[in-house]
Specification:
The complex is a heterodimer of chains A (about 110) and B (about 180). Chain A is of the alpha+beta class and about 110 residues long. Chain A has helices at about 5-25, 40-50, 55-65, 75-90, and strands spanning about 25-30, 70-75, 105-110. Chain A has a single domain, classed as 2-Layer Sandwich (Ribosomal Protein L30, Chain: A), CATH 3.30.1390.10. The chains are: A alpha+beta (about 110), B mainly alpha (about 180).
Chain lengths: ~110, ~180
Amino acid sequence: MTTEFQSQHHSQTDVLEAEKVKTLRRWKVVLYNDEDHTYDYVVAVLVAVCAMAREQAFRCAVEVDLTGRTTVFYGPQEECARISGKINTWGADHRLLRSRGSMNSAIESD
Amino acid sequence: MLPMSRAEKRILGAMEKLVLDILNQITGGNPPIHETKDLALLSSRQLLELADQTPPELLPLLVRFLKESRGGLRLFEKLMGEHEEENRELVDRFFSRYFQLVMEPSEIEENPLLLYLDPEMFHDLALVQTREGFFKRQSIACINEFLAAHFNHANPFAPGEQDLAWNFFFSELLKV
């Protein structure tokens, strides 16, 4: 059974925790679509750079293909900048001769 | 004679009509599917059920049509089942089937460098240079095998010497 004090304490902790999560997730990395990269490429990059599971990365690949953009990471600004930098310098898709560079991503405040 | 691009367009148009007819048969004409934009009008459930009944060989085409229907984010939300628990099984099955159809197997037995860095590319240094990241991400065993196949490289590189191996490879190309 929860006392009134415990209940108040919990709600304060919850608020602090929510604030902390909000601060940590204030920024996001957005990946933009183009026609020079395959689903395989997107999945490989997101698995390696964002530590996603292949299935999750595949859903992002479908989303970016259908909608033009997908959010691939949430976190503090510095971490998002690091992740976006890695995506933008990953290199061309070796499966496509016409592919000559990386995909584009950018960080945005959430 | 028609220019190839126009002939191709006609073939693609005919193929599109054929596939849309098949999709229309799957739904039994309820709702009717005569144009790609009709796909964007389907509800999430209707779309997922249609995808579920679409033969594997036509599923990538269905996704292409969805892309062409310009439904954008709304369409993707439908493919995600509007995040409703009751659609979850269909959503998982759609992504799983599509994944199996369009993705390379995770384990390719062939050396990726031998597979994708064809000697015919070697004269195009600008192109080869764009493959630097791909080259350096390979295991040193793959790299040594690739260099041995194309160059007289007697001393194999040690693990962690990907940068040196790349420099060797590119300097060999510059000699040609």
